[in-house]
């Protein structure tokens, strides 16, 4: 795992607002001087490459990994080619040292999580089947025996995450 990092997840169904909440939380943590990384799990097909680019052509030719590097960033693309995806633990081990890893998705992992829930989506609450969900956030209060936050109360949500992770 990323050396010294605390891991905290956001779980919920598509459209609940996990990504939007993360976009608001990250600057809050960065302003406090924390180095933050994010791991996002998706069930949709995605590609960070573009057809015709050199790296795309190299992957199409059969390369298992292609690393693209510039003076501003680098990205490693790894083709699974039918193999199962790596576990969250394997991905955590790949990260550079940081203070906090926010995980979007991996809703069945045994990590502390905040459930993001919008009743209007008509989806069931996840906390009932997951003892790792410590609190809920949403746009409408729902009667739950856990701490509840409004999605717009980013400061309170961030403080909950920091307290839970014992992060200064």
TrEMBL record:
Signal peptide: none annotated. InterPro entries: MGD_biosynthesis_adapter, MobB_dom, P-loop_NTPase. Residues 7-139 form the Molybdopterin-guanine dinucleotide biosynthesis protein B (MobB) domain. PANTHER family: MOLYBDOPTERIN-GUANINE DINUCLEOTIDE BIOSYNTHESIS ADAPTER PROTEIN, MOLYBDOPTERIN-GUANINE DINUCLEOTIDE BIOSYNTHESIS ADAPTER PROTEIN-RELATED. This is Molybdopterin-guanine dinucleotide biosynthesis protein B.
